[in-house]
Amino acid sequence: MSLGILASLQLVNAQTISSKKWSDLFSYNNVIAMKEDNGKIVAAAENGLFYYTISTGEITKLSKANGLHEIKITAFDYNPQTKVGLIGYQNGSLDVVTPDGVTYVVDIPIATGYNGSKKINHISITGDKAVVSVGYGVSIFDLKKKEFNDSAFFLTGGVYQASNEAVLFGNKVYSVTNTGLKTHEMNTTFPVFTTWVTEMPGNFTHIDSESVLTFSSPTTSYIYNNGVSTPIGQTFTNVHDVVVNANNIIVTDLARIYSFNTNGTAGTVSSFGEECNTATTVGGRVYGGTILSGIKNETNNTFKPDGPYLNYAYKISLHENNQIVVSTGGRESRFNTPINNSKNPGFYFFNGMEWIYSSYFIGSTTRFNVLDAVLDPASPDDVFFTNYNNSTGHGIYKMKYNASSKDFAFTKYYDLGGVINQDRRPVGLVYDDQNNLFTSIAFSGNGTTAGTATAIGSYDRATDNFIVKNTNSSSGAAQKPYYYEGLLWIPTPRLNSLVVYDNKKTPSISDDVDYIIDPSNGLPSNNGGSLSVVIDKAGDAWIGTDSGIRVLSNAATTIKEADPQADPIVIEQNGLGEELFRDLQILQIEVDAGDHKWVSIDGGGVYYLSADGQQTIKHFTKENSPLPTNSITDIKVDKKTGKVYFASYDGIVVYQGDVADVTSDFGNVVVYPNPVVYSNFKGKVTIKGLAEKTNIRIADVAGNVVHSAVARGGYYEWDLNNMRGSRVASGIYFVLMTNEDGSDKATAKIAVVN
């Protein structure tokens, strides 16, 4: 079985949540488990599987974007004889991967009264049976029937004990726990924990079997034979895994991989220069599954799908030449307290060809909480990033990219003049249309004492420094600014307001002014703060707050009036007006080339709305799409390609939208699917590449018009119904299209097979 086959599988007994329109930008660096299959290594990473064919170097992947149903893989095993794999997830669910499809298993057995983690700790496949280790014991899973058999709940004195790992060896299940190696035959008393035998007391973490059975404590590995546990003659520092192959035992100890034959005689020792989760041997060669570099061989070559350094992402910045910069920070407690990410990731960079990670962040003792990172359009090799923390090192950093070394070098640090660690913390960065750089700043004082003002930092290229000016907002907080027609729109998440800053299109701050809108200007009265803002093609500001959306019409002009008023979007349903997204926290709003709105709701997924917000075109959630979570922290649209990027703390996915480069004239008009065969497809036919406003007539071969419409925003979906509301007959249909003023025309054909 190859991953190319897996990637094209139709899902079995499960809702299809992926399609060819989706792709992932997940990290595949952290390899959790590996198995060999006839010269290929199948590896499980945090958010997907990938296959590495050793002879050709081919690498392919399988994730939630093209077949799997979850992220956060915690356990995996694969049987090369039956070609069946089983994936276990953090939330306790499973995916069964077979040559016939991927089946999602949600209902794992839960012990009565158990309230602990549902995480799948370990999976071991023997034949058509899998032993699944969880926080309350072990369960047997039938891979043919795709259902659970017996479960043993490790309950003693009212306390559940976890099975760290377990295997089926012979007719016995062997489980390593924190109190010992426990065993039981596969018989009628298997579910009764009091009938289980403790073969050897101790704290044991790993176990595996094939020709022999081997288990391990953090410092010692044992070979088990007929009731006798014999230690392997090697003391380890911290055993991360034990793997048994046909002819050897492989022990992963931090960065070192030890190989023994099946009677315990020492063989080779390989050093991988970094920590590994697991290891295996293929053709006599050792391959390590590393935490940060994917699969690595003994000559330190690495093999993995390209992707960011880690999955954790916060904001995305799209640039020319397909370049992408991803920030990795975050905040809690009303967007005040910096998230303490122990991995200190900094930012990720895609140079248009591959993902780059700066060595500057590796091993750095500075605490990085990078809320934003952008390339300088005036000097594209320079990147500025904000470090929002409440300790030493907060401020703005500039780094320079070296294409030959594929690395970034530190250039300069700007402390913004804060007097204490909590003062003048930069949040977001934005360029105006003159390439002037501005940053939003939280908790700004006057330069001598700390304060609670929201401030703007203006970058002066002549002096290579930032000039800071406080606004009239006393919220103390700020989000990333949005630039539009000389104005910087700054959401303030801790106070029911939004700041609009007029920078006069210069880095000088002497003549700058700011405006503040709050509930008196129409923001929700129960709003805890504004979180996002975007200006659409009509010039209206869409403001996302803690309690819904408000729209300020003709924003650049209205904001300067005496009493600007922002209004909710009211949708009429059954004769009653209902406010769109009332009382919901809006994390992000983005506008595509057709003026449609993408809206991220905290815990509610992403909505794709018509230009006026009156119609929901799509609603993507973690449950019905490849979104890794229902809380998407950022959305960016590449208006040239129509691609939509969704960032989250659990990874990045990309959706190929239907709207790109919408103008008053037609682009490349495409109809899909075409032909439309009812037995294969029962949805709507999409026509894309349209003008911004398109008049559409659809006629049969006799010239009879069966459907007419006006499409806005660059694409249209036809439900294949005629003007009477019934489905059209099988045949060829002609799509006749003109733009708004009739200066441009286009035609297309659709074949319908009922």
TrEMBL record:
InterPro entries: PorZ_N, Secre_tail, WD40/YVTN_repeat-like_dom_sf. The keyword DNA repair does not apply. The keyword Signal applies. Pfam families: PorZ_N_b_propeller. Residues 43-188 form the PorZ N-terminal beta-propeller domain. Gene3D superfamilies: 2.60.40.4070, YVTN repeat-like/Quinoprotein amine dehydrogenase. Keywords: Signal. NCBIfam families: Por_Secre_tail (TIGR04183). This is PorZ N-terminal beta-propeller domain-containing protein.
